[in-house]
Specification:
about 10% strand, TIM Barrel, 18 helices, about 50% helix, alpha/beta, 7 strands
Length: about 450
């Protein structure tokens, strides 16, 4: 048993190799151990985490897309999805790994956009009026072309330029500490895309090499008492968050106040996402900002601009120690779910996993979330159903086929949720979809899949 445990641990480490061939080989070996009953995954539960950042942007545990798919199988999660900042690098890898592991997978990207109609109001990016965290979900491939490719490459390039400017500002402030973006930061990334969190890790590591008295150095630069700095440095995740908060957030020396030109306009981004056959998705924070207090107006505007889904991070809206703040945010959570249902916006949920301490999965049976469980699951089935239909048949939510047969968003939402329930996530589900009549109507496809959903379709 000890030898098996060592083998499993070693293979799980290989899932996070920067070499994609090593990652897929490790997954195949782990799946063989499952097949041979050496590894016994937990029984699959109706559990969802469709918002996990992978190491292609930043995952606090260093997980690759392949590792996230394995995590879902090992722990019995029915739905798993990756969302990376500013890039689609992990989409193909993740969806392939999910099919191998038999996990209902989805993939997308998160960025920030400018919403001119709300230019005077904070939305979900604190201290940044008119700027909103925003998403594209339900991508079926990493490959893009045409206008979408130009737009998405521009987002990546903007992020790189912003990071380099942050590094320049911090080098000036933190002298004699100095880091080189390309030589010091990018080696921490698998595909040359870095985030603020990579910069923080690089600064802390480089300080250990360059600065003889780390405690005094950080105490001065972070404007913290020596004892408090020393205490923080004993816990690496806490110290990383402290450095990021002090240096890169609003008021810090590395912070760059955005302008309307800093990020793409929401119309351009949504157009690029839809061109890829994916789903423009609004991101909700907690309902307390000036913009989110006008949520019906905001969502109405975003729907006009092409938004068809809504992302929520449940844990930060109920898992709160202050009872009064918790009461307010739980109430706001129920309100936004009600509004989303009325506006026919399927809901995507997840935990992010881009900071230590965030959960691997939400417990949808706790009292605060149990009343919302069925709605959250319906959204998860919808996203998965769209992804499989788009990836295999090219008949996802945005397809002309879907719009012709199912002209309203509500009709399409219901159809793809049913598809998500009827089609298996492994290769047998692909075979079942391949076998449907290409000229069939949505109802005919559902009837065919009820008869032949794959190995173990949900009836």
């Amino acid at each position: 048993m000890t030898n098996n445990n060592s083998l499993i641990l070693n293979l799980e480490r290989q899932l996070d190799s920067f070499n994609p061939a090593v990652r897929i080989s490790a997954l195949q070996e782990l799946l063989l151990l499952v097949q041979n009953k050496i590894i016994k995954p937990l029984i699959i539960q109706e559990s969802v985490n469709n918002h996990c950042h992978s190491f292609f942007s930043y995952n606090a545990y260093g997980y690759s897309p392949t590792h996230i798919a394995w995590l879902a199988l090992k722990n019995g999660y029915r739905f798993m999805g990756i969302i990376d900042f500013d890039v689609l690098d992990g989409v193909d890898e993740f969806l392939n790994a999910c099919e191998l592991a038999g996990i209902r997978g989805s993939a997308g990207m998160e960025t920030r956009v400018y919403i001119p109609e709300f230019s005077e109001m904070e939305i979900n990016s604190p201290g940044e009026p008119g700027i909103a965290y925003h998403m594209g979900i339900g991508f079926s491939t990493s490959q893009t072309s045409g206008h979408a490719n130009i737009e998405l490459m521009d987002i990546r390039q903007r992020a790189t330029h912003r990071n380099m400017e942050i590094v320049n500002r911090l080098n000036e402030f933190l002298a004699p500490l100095f880091i080189d973006y390309e030589k010091d930061v990018l080696p921490f990334t698998p595909a040359g895309y870095a985030t603020e969190r990579h910069i923080v890790i690089t600064l802390i590591n480089k300080a250990h090499q360059m600065i003889s008295d780390n405690i005094s150095f950080w105490s001065e630069k972070l404007n913290q008492p020596i004892d408090k700095t020393l205490e923080g440095m004993k816990d690496e995740p806490i110290f990383q968050n402290l450095v990021r908060s002090k240096l890169m957030k609003r008021g810090g020396p590395g912070y760059i106040q955005p302008t309307p030109e800093s990020y793409p306009g929401i119309d351009e981004f949504n157009s690029a996402v839809a061109e890829c056959g994916a789903l423009p998705c609004a991101a909700w924070l907690d309902g307390t900002s000036s913009g989110e207090k006008r949520i019906e107006e905001l969502l109405g505007l975003l729907i006009e601009k092409g938004v068809v889904a809504l992302n929520i991070i449940p844990d930060r809206n109920w898992n709160i120690s202050d009872s009064q703040i918790k009461k307010t945010k739980v109430s706001n959570l129920y309100h936004i779910v009600t509004i989303a249902e009325q506006m026919h916006l399927p809901i995507q949920i997840g935990t992010e996993m881009n900071s230590f301490g965030q959960k691997l999965i939400d417990d949808l049976d706790i009292p605060e979330l149990a009343p919302l469980k069925d709605i959250f699951l319906k959204g998860a089935y919808f996203i998965y159903g769209h992804v499989r239909m788009q990836a295999i048949l090219g008949k996802g939510f945005q397809s002309q086929w879907a719009k012709n047969y199912l002209p309203s968003r509500q009709e399409r939402n219901d159809f793809f949720s049913k598809i998500g329930r009827h089609i298996e996530p492994d290769s047998s589900g692909r075979i079942a979809l391949d076998a449907v009549n290409i000229n069939a109507s949505p109802q005919e496809i559902l009837e065919q899949l009820k008869t032949n959903p794959g190995k173990k379709g949900i009836k």
